[in-house]
């Protein structure tokens, strides 16, 4: 195999330790698959793919190709489609296989199932029935981007894909902008320019960020700088490939106590004290406990 990206998006160089057929207990197995390099898959994930009775894949073609790269034969096993548009009946059939003593491996097209990928409803229904659910962790674009971004990683929020429409997107970004955590967002490469423009306006031009593109693939690139610098660096037509945006936590700013008091009093008219304190603490980047104590004083 070469190291070139094939039509399924994998960096196709594979080989190495072969998968083993192992005895799997009945259950639903969430298997993380490579986001680029096919060699990023774990040995345990390969064993599960080689052994599960049924493989439920977001894209069956991609799943079959990944198995071929690693020498895993289907051996007549079922490889069925399970994606965002799958029905309640599709979920019921998969859980029925588990209920009858089978093992079902759930795989996304790339990355970790449920992280901006299908699987939540399937897991929710399995848990509701008391069926075993097991994770085989591995590749995740969100964690890979956070790792290479150079931004604080001790506290972060995965915010998924922001809305594509302008007004709705700005509303969501305004809610996210003041959260005192590093933010990880997915975005279409064609819309990243517009997202950056909105963030410059909402979060501030000087806020640090990193665009992580084509992670683990041949043309992997990380562009670091302020939001203003990134907005300038991205062409009007956008970028190519998969994109993750990592945004630094809000810049510390002097707090105007009168502004805080006014905002908290307004919130107390709308919300219970605990909820009001939480809302204003998030807005100003302060501790919830301190804001709750302030609420007690203002109400007293």
Automatic annotation (TrEMBL):
One of its GO terms (biological process) is methylation. Residues 256-299 form the RsmI HTH domain. It catalyses: cytidine(1402) in 16S rRNA + S-adenosyl-L-methionine = 2'-O-methylcytidine(1402) in 16S rRNA + S-adenosyl-L-homocysteine + H(+). Keywords: Cytoplasm, Methyltransferase, rRNA processing, S-adenosyl-L-methionine, Transferase. Its EC number is 2.1.1.198. InterPro entries: 4pyrrol_Mease (IPR000878), 4pyrrol_Methylase_sf (IPR035996), 4pyrrole_Mease_sub1 (IPR014777), 4pyrrole_Mease_sub2 (IPR014776), rRNA_ssu_MeTfrase_I (IPR008189), RsmI_HTH (IPR053910). Its main location: cytoplasm. GO terms for molecular function: methyltransferase activity. It comes from the Bacteria. SUPFAM superfamilies: Tetrapyrrole methylase. It is an enzyme of class 2 (transferase). Pfam families: RsmI_C, TP_methylase. Belongs to the methyltransferase superfamily. RsmI family. Catalyzes the 2'-O-methylation of the ribose of cytidine 1402 (C1402) in 16S rRNA. This is Ribosomal RNA small subunit methyltransferase I.
